[in-house]
């Protein structure tokens, strides 16, 4: 189970976690999986006009929670971050086209039975991370928030 103190599952994401606010990552907490070595996070918007849009890629997380506002750099004290579909490292929050109605944002946490090898000099995308995780996922938690811009 994945939760945040910022919003409840299927509720509206507060503006401070979006492009209309501070654009900081929300705090996340999940149940510890006893056999997990590391965790990974992918945040995605399946309602984007061009297909699923990735907002955050993070991996080799050792603890079962992340505070608000993780720094936007490759290596943090919480884990490694890849590149999102804005072509930036770290978290960039919801920013759907104005007047497009609500989009759903899925925060997915993956419990892994290994520590993933770091690809030196390469920015890891969500597809790269999914490839790296293949055969190592032992549990998945999901939280969905909604957001729209008028």
Automatic annotation (TrEMBL):
It holds the Pfam family PBP. It comes from the Archaea. SUPFAM superfamilies: PEBP-like. CDD domains: PEBP_bact_arch. PANTHER family: PEBP (PHOSPHATIDYLETHANOLAMINE-BINDING PROTEIN) FAMILY PROTEIN, UNCHARACTERIZED PROTEIN YBCL-RELATED. NCBIfam families: YbhB/YbcL family Raf kinase inhibitor-like protein. This is YbhB/YbcL family Raf kinase inhibitor-like protein. It comes from Metallosphaera tengchongensis. The lineage of its organism: Archaea, Thermoproteota, Thermoprotei, Sulfolobales, Sulfolobaceae.
